[in-house]
UniProtKB/TrEMBL annotation:
Keywords: Chaperone. GO terms for biological process: chaperone-mediated protein complex assembly; protein folding. This is Probable prefoldin subunit 6. It holds the Pfam family Prefoldin_2. It comes from Ceratina calcarata.
Length: 129
């Protein structure tokens, strides 16, 4: 009985650790997306300061390529839209993983209590014998 509960407890611990890894990975993704969004906001502010006849260059690999100002603004706006949608997706994932962690913790607590009770019963049984 104790060994069976111990195996289930170990399995639940492994599941919990995996959920934690997924959660930390999602947090890292969110942080990276936040940085990208802030960079693009800064670029948009700079582009908004330019006049229609000013030159705009895009870095493509090691080469600077001349772009139309409106095209550059549209590209930045599209990138910001994409990053925002990815941020929303990652936020939902984090929320889901947060709930999974809570659920997994409750399950772990139950198995730990069952394991402790089984150990106490086993030790009481040995003392009587």
């Amino acid at each position: 009985m104790t060994e069976e509960i111990q195996k289930k407890l170990k399995g639940e611990i492994d599941k919990y650790k995996q959920v934690q890894r997924d959660y930390h990975k999602a947090l890292s993704q969110r942080q990276q997306l936040d940085v990208q969004l802030n960079e693009n906001i800064a670029v948009k502010k700079e582009l908004d300061l330019l006049k229609a006849d000013d030159d705009v260059f895009t870095l493509l690999g090691p080469v600077l390529i001349k772009r139309d100002l409106e095209e550059a603004k549209q590209n930045v706006a599209k990138r910001m839209e994409y990053i925002s949608s990815e941020l929303k997706r990652v936020e939902e994932l984090i929320s889901t993983l947060d709930k999974k962690q809570d659920s997994q913790r409750e399950t772990l607590d139950k198995y730990q209590q069952m394991f402790q009770q089984a150990q106490m019963k086993a030790s009481l049984g040995q003392q009587k014998a």
